[in-house]
Specification:
The structure is a homodimer. Chain A has 2 domains: 11-155, Nucleoside Triphosphate Pyrophosphohydrolase, CATH 3.90.79; 158-224, Arc Repressor Mutant, subunit A (Orthogonal Bundle), CATH 1.10.10. By secondary structure, the first copy, chain A, is of the alpha+beta class. Chain A is built from 5 helices and 11 strands. In chain A, strands 1, 2, 3, 4, 5, 6 and 7 form a 7-stranded mixed sheet that branches. In chain A, strands 8, 9, 10 and 11 form a 4-stranded antiparallel sheet that branches. Helices cover 24% and strands 24% of the residues of chain A. The first copy, chain A, binds a DNA duplex through residues 170-172, 187-190, 192-194, 197, 212, 214-220, 232, 237, 243.
DNA sequence: CCCTTTATAGTCACAATGACTATAAACACG
DNA sequence: CGTGTTTATAGTCATTGTGACTATAAAGGG
């Protein structure tokens, strides 16, 4: 950045964004993919994304592409918590030309198939279980894998899990998010004790509100609290590490 | 990334890297800065960095620029632990043209002034206390601030603190790193108990080796252990959060 | 009307932590 | 050549957090 300004001093690169948008659905972590229409990788699944326009920041471009390529509602896309994952810049990651891509991660509550809402290229967008996503275009398998492990860590020390839930949720639903992303079973009483003991993580919906989808005792409803980080963190069960 | 290949479909951007390289020196966190030689911001301090070349990845470019612009030894630059911080892409962040910059963070042990080693533009490089760094070029103040807080968090849940230390170090030196970066005092016995109880964080140098710079009882020497993450984390004293 | 299912309350032993006290081994300096 | 300062290291102790469980409550399904 301190090289003299000389048009020949730098190579013009294409700069794109890619998005790994996750949701928890039917007990499995899903990611939003689109089926590519043209070469290269025509017919293959890929992460949504596209070129950054001249007057856009990467984050603005990410929201625009997400709205254009998927059926997610504009209100949701505008309110979405987007987080930069990392930038992928290996030469050769796109066979056509030199492309540097800024990858983002987002979490959304479960919702209908994007195709149902129509519009744009939404008919080519699908929620796909992350474990079943194979043969992705470009280096998107690597991006997806990086995004997945980042989400797992984020659940430990941030309040991000509530982003997977609807505006009001039960502690059982919140626990299911953790169990799905971490792929472990958690003790229910201990989980609730930990969550309720963390100031600002969730707050009870006052109107003694309760609601249930099916069997069992109705659960109290909670909504996201003001906190953004978890103090202390909610560590996932020791993966081989003696605790 | 799934737009048809059409040269007019994307804007060519310049892509650069910027580096926030930290060290702990004389009880203060320092960052490596270079003084700019030409406009814009001629004479101002800036983070080292520069354009990515056609066949380079961002990380390769970061190492090359670091070696070219500073007096850090090639061996050190090659072995350095570089970590992507985030990518800065706001339009207008460079007055000359559209520049997207991939920022990296690195930590090095204390060492002589880069100028002493000569070569390249090293005479314009300096270690500057981060709290005294003002008037940085471009948006480098923002990058530096982001990097600083990232380093603070990283110390909590990774073994990165040892990267600030020489190959063999005392627990007192390691504690000084934490105290400097977090700007807090830590209880010495509790710190050593925690560090030694974390498997793989540090390992004692076997030869009953000890060494001291000045007064006091000589301290045992340790080197970095095989672990890369801290289980459980070494949380910084509650900043207003009730623990 | 029981039985299954889910939510929630509570218990208990143990591990981790924060705040201290105590001892050891060096050097400085009078 | 002690004495005191400085840094390292070994403990203690009360409190808190955690994992593993047990118990009770409130629904719906046969």
């Amino acid at each position: 950045m301190n090289t003299a300004y000389d048009p020949r001093a730098f190579e013009p690169f294409a700069v794109t964004v890619d998005l790994a948008v996750f949701t928890v659905r039917a007990g499995a972590l899903h990611v939003l993919l689109i089926r590519r229409g043209q070469e290269p990788y025509a017919g293959a699944w890929a992460l949504p994304g596209g070129f950054i326009l001249p007057r856009e920041s990467a984050e603005t471009a990410a929201r625009r592409e997400l709205a254009e390529e998927t059926g997610l509602s504009p209100a949701l896309v505008a309110a979405l918590h987007l987080e930069q994952l990392r930038t992928y810049s290996e030469p050769g990651r796109d066979p056509r030309m030199r492309v540097v891509s800024v990858a983002f991660t987002a979490l959304v509550p479960d919702m209908p198939e994007p195709a149902a809402e129509g519009g744009g290229d939404a008919d080519r967008a699908r929620w796909v279980p992350v474990d079943g996503a194979a043969g992705l275009a470009f280096d998107h398998a690597v991006i997806l894998s990086d995004a997945r492990s980042r989400v797992g860590s984020k659940l430990e020390y941030t309040c991000l899990a509530t982003a997977f839930c609807p505006p009001e949720f039960t502690l059982g639903e919140l626990q299911a998010v953790y169990e799905t992303v971490w792929d472990t079973a958690l003790d229910r009483p201990n989980f609730r004790r930990k969550v309720l003991a963390t100031p600002g993580f969730v707050e009870a919906v006052p109107g003694a509100a309760r609601l249930t989808g099916g069997r069992g005792k109705p659960a109290a409803l909670y909504r996201p609290g003001p906190a953004t980080v978890l103090h202390p963190p909610l560590l996932r069960p020791t993966e081989g590490h003696p605790r």
